[in-house]
Amino acid sequence: MKAWCGSFMVLLLACMSVQADQSRYDVETGYVEYESVSTLKVGGQEIRNTSQTKVLFSDWGAIEIQEKTTDHGGMVDTELSKQDGEIYYSVDFDRQVIVKATLQEMGLASDDTGQPVNPKSSKAGTETILGYPCYRVEAEGIQSWYYRGVMLKQRIKTDVMTVETLAKKAVFEDLVDASVLAFPDYPIVGLYE
C-alpha cells in the first residue's frame, strides 16, 4: 500500500499542471518544498501518512527532479524521480536501478509540450500562497493552486481518500544547486525489466 500511495502522489504532482503554451511552466527555474498529509479510510479505520517533497526544475519545466520522503506511521520511504520531456525516471533503491519510461508507457496523456493534461479541469478563482498570486483549477474532486503553472497547493478528496499538499518554501528564477536532488549512479532499465 505504501508504494502505491507514494507513486500516486509523485505522478499526481507531475500530472496536474494545465498549460497551453510551449513550456510546462511560465517560470524558467524553481525549487519548491511541499508537505502533504494523506488520509485513507479502509474498513472503518483511517490510515494517515505524511510526506515532504522537494522539486527542482529548469528550462521552463522541461527538466524536473523530485525527491519525496513519506512517513507511513513510523516506516519511512524515500522516492526519487526525474521527468525530462516525455521521459520519466524513477530510482528503485531496493533493486539499485533507475527505471526509465515514457509518459505514454505509464498511461498518461500529454499535449504537444510533453505536459500531462486533464481535459476536464477549469479555472475557479485565485489565492495568494507564500506571497505568490495563484489561480485555482478544479477537476473531479481535485483543487489545485498554481503560480505561473507551478502547483503550490492541492486538495484531493474522494470517498476513501483525502490528500492535502501545501508548498512550505518556493524560490523561482534563482539558481539552485542541482546536487540538492542528486541521482545515484545506478544502471538504467526499462519499465518492464
How is this structure best described in words?
With 193 residues, the protein is mainly beta. The protein has 1 helix and 12 strands; from the N terminus they run αββββββββββββ. The chain has a 12-stranded mixed β-sheet, with helices on one face. The longest helix has 14 residues, at 2-15.
Short description:
The protein is mostly beta strands. It is built from 1 helix and 12 strands; from the N terminus they run H-E-E-E-E-E-E-E-E-E-E-E-E.
Please tag this protein with its features.
mainly beta; about 190 residues; twelve-stranded mixed sheet; 12 strands; disordered N terminus; single chain
Radius of gyration: 16 Å
Global structural class: mainly beta
Low-confidence stretches: 1-22, 112-117
**Largest sheet properties:** 12 strands, mixed
Give the strand order, joined by hyphens, for the main sheet: 7-8-9-10-11-1-2-3-4-5-6-12
Order of helices and strands: HEEEEEEEEEEEE
So how many helices?
1
Give the overall pLDDT as a whole number: 80
The fraction of residues in strands falls at over 45%
Query: Would you count the extended β strands for me?
Result: 12
Shape: globular
Helix content: under 10%
